Amino acid sequence: MLKNVRVFYKKKSRMKFVSHLDMNRFMIRAIRRTKIPVWYTEGFNCHAYVTFALPLSLGFQSEYEIMDFKVTDDNYSLESVKSELAGVMPEYIEIFAVAEPILKAGKIAFAEFKVYFEDIADSVKKDVSDYLSAEQIITTKKTKKGAEKVVDLKPQIKSFEFEDDTLILTLSAGNDNLNPTLLLSAFEANNYELPDYTITRTKILDEQLNIFK
Fold it and tell me: Within the chain, what is the greatest distance between any pair of CA atoms?
């Protein structure tokens, strides 16, 4: 009998430069190196069927990534899945939990990001806070067909706050996805300048802001 498996992992440092498509290929190859009885698709080009709950943008680190697949032996333990995968992962991928899925990917509603700034001045933090507090945040966004459309980003911001030099953002995710770089670029387009920063996705959340599991 098939059993659904959900793997939770961190993607750090150099791995942030690996695209989602390449990450998909990497994980499939990694699984092949294990003893996990993973389920393969049928047909001419059979392959391990692996899905990711919320693809991560190139250049982002993450403390909460989710990968799903199925195993053909429902007696194969989740701890064995974890240890097998951990044994073939590179330095910057950390498998920290394996469980059977509770929610479907369609239940994802928000994601939390931490934007780490280098030496951001208090005046700039105030400018960012004032900007994010505005009733509207109007910018242009490219569609999948390459056209530009005018959008208001404000409804997609659930919350924000500064902790020292770190901006914590909770943004719409899933069907209505807001990339934090779009938000920061919109801020700089208004004749502001931000210091260098790095972005880490820290949580994936459901509609009630509970951790997606």
Answer: 60
The two structure tokens encoding residue 28: 């499939």
| Segment 50-106, tens digit of pLDDT | 999 999 999 999 999 999 999 999 999 999 999 999 999 999 999 999 999 999 999
Residue 19 DSSP class: -
Q: Model pTM?
A: 0.92
Q: Output DSSP code: residue 40.
A: B
- pLDDT, tens digit, 9 for 90 and up, residues 108-154: 999 999 999 988 999 999 999 999 999 999 998 877 777 788 999 99
First to last CA, the chain: 22
Residue 48 pLDDT: 82
pLDDT per position as a tens digit, 15-40: 999 999 999 999 999 999 999 999 98
CA distance 17 to 92: 11
Cα 25 to Cα 29, 90, 96, 138, distances in angstroms:
6, 14, 20, 37
> Which H, E and C letters describe 62-122, residue by residue?
EEEEEEEEEECCCCCCHHHHHHHHHCCCCCCEEEEEEECCCCCHHHCCEEEEEEEECCCCH
Phi, psi dihedrals of residue 198, rounded to the nearest 5°: -125, 150
The amino acid at 79: E
Token pair belonging to 67? 């990968």
The sign of the dihedral angle between the CA atoms of 68, 12, 58, 107 is positive
